[in-house]
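Could you join me in thinking about how sequence relates to backbone shape in a protein? To get us started, please write out a protein record for me. Would you write everything just below, so we can both look at the same thing?
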Amino acid sequence: MAKVDHKVVLIVIDGWGIPSETSPPKGDAIAAADTPVMDEFAKEGSKTAQGYTELEASSLAVGLPEGLMGNSEVGHLNIGAGRVVWQDSVRIGQTIKKGELKKVPNVEKCFQRAIDGNGRLHFLGLVSDGGVHSHIDHLVALLKVAKAMKVPKIFIHFFGDGRDTDPKSAAGYLQDLLDRTKELGVGELATIVGRYYIMDRDKRWDRVEIGMKGVVLGEGEDSTDPVATIKERYEKGENDEFLKPIIVGGEERRIQNGDTLFFFNYRSDRVREITQLLGDYDRSPKSDFPYPKDIEITTMTQYKPDYKFPIAFPPQHMGNVLAEWLGKKGVKQCHVAETEKYAHVTFFFNGGIEKQFEGEEREMIPSPKVATYDLDPPMSAQKVADKLSERISDKKFEFLMNNFAPPDMVGHTGVYEAAIKGVTATDAAIGTVYETCKKEGYILFVTADHGNAEEMLNEEGKPKTSHTTNKVPLVMANAPEGWSLKNQDGVLGDVAPTILAAMGLDQPEEMGGTSLLIKKRKASTLNPEAKE
């Protein structure tokens, strides 16, 4: 076994939040359940826990947009990564907010290439505030940078939304964009085309060709008043998603030889095909198309790992997540969950990659085969606890972790009484693991990925099935006497650094989280050779 100061077990409860002042007064399935183990952990002066604190598990604290509730994938990603894992949209938004977009290397290089070349820069992307694939504010911010850099000619190719927004909202977004370009004094509208034709992802190349013919060849309906043209299309039964190309400004505003292109969608799946063709990655689906020569494409994010386009916001480096770092240190580890949450303790906990690290073993317990989990609220929590306890008792692993699913999966059904049963079963399962940790000499950490079961009813008293923005607990039990946890400003990304500190292992540079562990004890207690 690897040399660690202490062996550790981590329990991640799915959907176990702490009610806030704004939580509805009724519908807390956790408070209503029989939870003696977690209740004792949370008590001041607890007889079983040496540390108890609350962690932020939503919004910017876990890399999500402000005010957005956490989820299981993001929660496990942050816990396992030991850092805030920023969503692309948030990274871009925060960069803009700080006024640093002009400092992004591949934004500057792209615009400079246009200036040094033929002076022509094209922006292409979905124009709305739907926030799923792109955001109109990002386009406006890019226009401001291009203006500051004095790019001579700037053209905008407007992809209509209508799926993540109202189906007939493009006229409003276009008017907003035209008002902003007028105010800025830069940016000329070139093309309008619905996402159906330019943002396909199902290899329907004929659709993409219709979009390309618009932006490159100018094939479509010529218009000098595009807002009015869109409204006329509405009258004919066409909506934003299905807008056939509307051409503004004629040949001058088409993509021509030597031009520079910037695709500003941040979600990748629906701009892979158009960039594959225009960027000459693989033109075989439409090899006869008269593509412009010597164009350069820059993309907002990575659209595909094997595309070689410059990227403004490359993927966040997820090196040395907890599981990888422990593997490098020779620490043997085991991850356990039932089927419903198996991906969360493997793929997501390991940094969003399907990789089993050195010394890592996995155990999957089948979830009950029922239509909905209110029909079997305990799910397989006890079986997971029993398997985890068995693996702890093997004395083979220095680190083990698991997920307990019922508070979240039963919480999603909206059936309050069932959620109470699921929470009760989860607490009993935690008790099983705690007793094994005591017997085998493991420190136990218990946290959750996000809230859910603590708010089963909304303000109107109707069933609530969604996650919450509430904080979650972080418990440390069976730790050396005198140890405790800092009780302020903690986030899920602090869990892994705290575990490493408890094990006496150094924290890798990539982990931006902070250890919440406070070690105050006499050198003679427990392990006199342990690092302070």
Notes: The longest helix spans residues 416-440. The radius of gyration is 27 Å. DSSP finds 17 helices and 17 strands in the chain. The longest strand covers residues 49-56.
